[in-house]
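Convert to structure. Protein one:
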Amino acid sequence: MGIFDMHVETKEGKKNHNKGVVCDVRNCAYHDGDNYCTASKIAVGPSFATSCTDTVCATFKQKNQNL
């Protein structure tokens, strides 16, 4: 798994959706509130996974609860 970029923001300061990536993890810093991921890149692993239950989103970052 590799290095992850932070949120990609437009000139207006809005976070871009990572098109095609749906995310239900509301406590992730990259969750936009509408079930989309705003990370510019995502990493899914591990490489030895043999089913979807073996995989994890390695880009996950706990949302700061103090916001």
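Protein two, convert as well:
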Amino acid sequence: MSTAVLIPPPPATSRRRAPAAVLFTVGYEKSAPEAFLDRLKGRGVTLLADVRDFPGSRRKGFSKRALQAILEAEGIEYLHLKSLGAPKDLRDALRGGGAWADYARAYTSRVLDRQAESLRHLARLARTHRVALLCYERDPLVCHRSLVAARLMRSSPEGTLSVEHIRY
């Protein structure tokens, strides 16, 4: 005769933390559309959130309409979040030799601090989709998408959102 060991259920007051969602960031600088798509598909991205102020590009395949078409052909949704784009004057100042720290402070105060609803929307999407934030720069550390990602991670309950920069 065997005896069964009963394991009691956890106490009613214990709460399980939701599994962490991953928010990706990606740039397309010096990238071909096919290689770019491979990087997204390799991470299981289901939604690309374009955080460019102006979603045009001189790089073939990366303007809004062209990008949206190639993404949709692969089953990846596209969302343009102009509200989280870096204003042209800030981009121009940085390209003109301005300091990253000054750019980051200005972007934070002029955009992030004023776009709580856009950030909440993006956080909700990250819980239901595999989201990648898109901008131009290859290096996320010199792109405002890293500031957006950091803000989202800090404002999420501890351990529920992590950020992965897709590097190539």
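The beta strands are 21-27, 47-50, 77-80, 131-135, 161-165. The chain has one domain: 21-165.
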